[in-house]
Amino acid sequence: MTVQNKVVVITGASSGIGEASAKLLAANGAKVVLGARREAKLQAIVDAIQAAGGEATYQVTDVTKMADVQALVAKAKATFGGIDVIFNNAGIMPTSPISALHTDEWDAMIDINLKGVLNGVAAVMPDFTSQKSGQIITTSSVAGIKSFPGSGVYGATKFAVRNLMEVIRTESAQEGTNIRTATLYPAAINTELLSTITDQDALAGMNQLYDAVGITPDAIARVVNFAIDQPADVNVNEFTIYPTRQA
Ligand code: NDP
């Protein structure tokens, strides 16, 4: 199977990487199901996909709530008759030094970036196990493979999902359930992500970097498309994606 006709659930689909992926996958014949909190954004993206001849629907979803993510998957099954792929992509990045003790933001990152991914996994696992196929793609970060000042908790959530994806892959291989996983490690991608940073020093540094080298989220959408497009017996595990100009 290729991207064509696959049912793909995408979290964090109201902007940035999720939006770009939804549009590219739909243009290539996938049936996409968009989840995020901002309904007006989701509606506008679905309208644009449908106007271009693609198939899409949405479900307002807060990934920190298991029932919401289950409802998102249920929407995919009710609308398109099943689910083939979940792209766990929702995330926030309020970076700051640990010494600043922005503990509310620590909690939010754990809830969205880690618990949100676990909720996505739990929501698809019964179907993927019984149908003996499925693919789980998760957006980590270069902060999930390298340690950067300011990324103590953000990086911790992104290191965690890396481990989770690889363990799911190996357990599935042992259990014979054919579940594929892929983890994405993007560097500076120009999206709305920096708007989640409240620490002014951290924000200034990130703005400087992104203004200098940031690339568009289509770069990540193409990688997502590539991972889904592989034959069922091929699992492409990990992708690190840097702007060419980023050191
Ligand atoms: P955006 O801010 O543009 O997108 C983030 C998405 O996550 C939005 O659609 C937002 O939608 C959604 N989201 C946030 N909180 C929740 C929630 N509780 N429930 C459901 N959806 C939620 O940024 P990106 O596209 O850049 O971010 C996508 C992923 O990429 C994130 O996981 C991020 O950590 C990762 N990443 C990004 C990099 C970059 O440079 N941009 C680099 C490395 C990783 P809404 O507010 O409507 O809910």
In short:
Belongs to the short-chain dehydrogenases/reductases (SDR) family. By secondary structure, the protein is an alpha/beta fold. It has helices at 16-27, 39-51, 66-80, 103-131, 152-175, 200-213, 218-229; strands spanning 7-11, 31-36, 55-60, 85-88, 134-139, 179-186, 238-241.
Outline the biggest β-sheet: 7 strands, parallel
Order of helices and strands: EHEHEHEHEHEHHE
Range of strand content:
15-25%
CATH architecture: 3-Layer(aba) Sandwich
Structural class based on helices, strands and sheet pairing: alpha/beta
Associated small molecules: NADPH dihydro-nicotinamide-adenine-dinucleotide phosphate
If helices are DSSP runs of H or I spanning 4 or more residues, what is the number of helices?
Answer: 7
Major beta sheet, strand line-up = 3-2-1-4-5-6-7
Task: Name the CATH superfamily assignment.
Answer: NAD(P)-binding Rossmann-like Domain
- Rg, Å, rounded: 17 Å
Q: What overall geometry do the principal axes of the alpha carbons give?
A: globular
Percent helix: 40-55%
- In the residues, how many domains can be counted? 1
Could you tell me how far the N terminus lies from the C terminus, measured between alpha carbons in angstroms? 37 Å
CATH class: Alpha Beta
Low-confidence stretches: none
Query: Which fold name fills CATH's third level, the topology?
Result: Rossmann fold
Mean pLDDT: 98
Tell me the number of strands.
7
Protein name: Short-chain dehydrogenase oxidoreductase
Pfam families: adh_short (PF00106)
Organism: Secundilactobacillus similis DSM 23365 = JCM 2765
Keywords: Oxidoreductase
